[in-house]
Amino acid sequence: MAVQHHAAPRPATNPLFNDNRLKLGVFGANVSNGCAITLAEGHLETTWPNTARIATLADQAGFEAMVPVARWKGFGGPTNFNGSCFECYTWAAGVAAVTEQIGVFSTSHVPTVHPLLAAKQATTIDHISNGRFALNIVCGWYQPELEMFGAPIMEHDTRYEYAAEWLEIVKRLWTAEDEFDFEGRFFRIQKGFHQPKPIQRPFPPIMNAGGSPVGQRFAAKYADMAFILVREHDYDGARAQVQHLRRLAREEFGRELQVWTNGYVVCRPTEREARDYLNYYVRERGDWEAVDNLTRIIGIQSGVLPPEAVEAFKFHFIAGWGGYPLVGTAEQITDTLAKLAGVGLDGVVLSWVNYEAELQQWIAEVLPLLEQAGLRRPFRQEA
What is the CATH number of the domain that holds 97? Predict the structure, then answer.
């Protein structure tokens, strides 16, 4: 791939803007266990060689995205789920250097990094990747992590006000040619300056996963990719979410955006084998202590939901961070993804128990079926 270090519109360099009907990403390859809260054999270990092999496989198969989880502290239990974790910006820089075409995300906890530093780090990665960087903004909800930084635990709506101001500064730094001053509620910038500019113009794309009404408005106003959770078989609900976000972005802010979700994959020769393995790694080998900690902190155990609903949440969190279950044969998974694309979703980030082995299986068995279904074009690497 020829490297051209000059400004370019985002679709010219970033595969997130290609014309595949359903885009694909790898989710959580920077944290221990990835997205599966399990003691099952083969679960992800946080090493750079593991990351590099996974990223290279996805890159060579034409995936559009590598999306990390921003984590600083684990959730306890026998796995201490996600407790061993790579920092997202430096991880993304490394991934950018060992790949050629895939979009590379950093996930950024805005209370833990100053916007001047974030803008500089993001620009550096955009140059390393030749315009393939994207930024996933999260506002911070895990109190033990924020306490490590001495950061205040902000009220829910205030987090988004903080994130909006943070992002305004980052975008100014990415685009302003002259020094500027900024006086806000949370930040004060004197003679802010930033060079070089990112390769992508006007700036690298933004992803956000706000689920509350305030979070949805934030995503509609600022994000190029909004991230939603979809309940199993709830295609009508997914369609309503997608349409609401697109309408909100278009009518309130004059913008267009993509809508993505996450899914966990268990692909086997038969549906029975896939279901059996899912039950094995969740019910028999799942770290229920860690998921109890996680759901208590999120607030799912607050008594608002009936006990059976809480147990269902826990099952899907163990299986893959509450993602959509892509469980069954390659043909069944393809059918499910066609339905998700049919409700308007643009992309899915994927996780497995054994990332490397099961990603290879995905590439060999599922990807050709997605191409046959018209969801993706065959990928050919540039010489």
Answer: 3.20.20.30
